[in-house]
Design goal:
The complex is a heterodimer of chains A (111) and B (109). Chain A has 111 residues and is an all-beta fold. Chain A has strands at residues 5-7, 10-13, 19-24, 31-37, 44-50, 53-57, 65-68, 75-79, 88-96, 99-102, 106-110. Helix content of chain A is 0%, strand content 53%. In chain A, a hairpin with a 6-residue loop joins strand 4 and strand 5 (44-50). The mean pLDDT of chain A is 92. Chain B has 109 residues and is mainly beta. Chain B contains no helices and 11 strands. In chain B, strand 7 (60-65) and strand 8 form a beta hairpin. Classes of the chains: A mainly beta (111), B mainly beta (109). The A-B interface holds A 2, 31, 33, 35, 40-45, 48, 50, 55-56, 91, 93, 95, 98-105 and B 2, 32, 34, 40-44, 47, 49, 87, 89, 94-102.
Chain lengths: 111, 109
């Protein structure tokens, strides 16, 4: 257990539905990252927060994806109008200047 | 911007050594190394910051050559528990993290 929690751990949804994932980072870490990982690939960067500020968002991310980190604590990642290609493991990572710990991930399956 | 890892896969016998390389086309501020086992999240091994330092953790160590924008992970006297996929993550000054495609390491008895 790295101290980073994600909820839910698994989500099955139908194409076209909206889904929201939550990440609770390690409390003293001010940076939070979201990644997407598919089988056999490395984590793919989605977005990054320093405290409550979203500092970077991948150009690969369509307008259907949005992330927030109100008050610089937990973060949410929302996917609107899900597509089958969105099926993947969504990983959150909590980071300090010298460490970065991943949460257990949320596995999304879009039918 | 994604770093390139080599080799893609390596098979070792217990007790043998291995080197995994990671190179980037852009200037780096830090390099992270992770190990991921099947069905689990990546586990943090170590971070190397700009400065060319070398770090070690038990029998796993790494080096970072910022001028060449390269890092290497050294696994000595490998154990069965070392099996997994190793990823390097690289970041510039703005902390934009990018991961390589991974190196699959298999350690056999």
């Amino acid at each position: 257990d790295t101290g980073v929690s994600q909820d839910p751990r698994h989500k099955i949804t139908k194409r076209g539905q909206n889904v929201t994932f939550r990440c609770d980072p390690i409390s003293e870490h001010n940076r939070l990252y979201w990644y997407r990982q598919t089988l056999g690939q490395g984590p793919e960067f989605l977005t990054y927060f320093q405290n409550e500020a979203q500092l970077e968002k991948s150009r690969l991310l369509s307008d259907r994806f949005s992330a927030e980190r109100p008050k610089g604590s937990f973060s949410t990642l929302e996917i609107q109008r899900t597509e089958q290609g969105d099926s993947a493991m969504y990983l959150c990572a909590s980071s300090s200047p010298n460490t970065q710990y991943f949460g257990p991930g949320t596995r999304l399956t879009v039918l | 911007q994604q770093p390139v890892q080599s080799p893609q896969a390596v098979i070792l016998r217990e007790g043998e050594d291995a080197v995994i390389n990671c190179s980037s086309s852009k200037a780096l501020y830090s390099v992270h190394w992770y190990r991921q086992k099947h069905g689990e999240a990546p586990v943090f091994l170590m971070i190397l910051l700009k400065g060319g330092e070398q770090k070690g953790h038990d029998k796993i160590s790494a080096s970072f050559n910022e001028k060449k924008q390269q890092s290497s992970l050294y696994l000595t006297a490998s154990q069965l528990s070392y099996s997994g996929t190793y990823f390097c993550g690289t970041a510039g000054n703005n902390n934009d993290m990018r991961f390589g495609a991974g190196t699959r390491l298999t350690v056999k008895p």
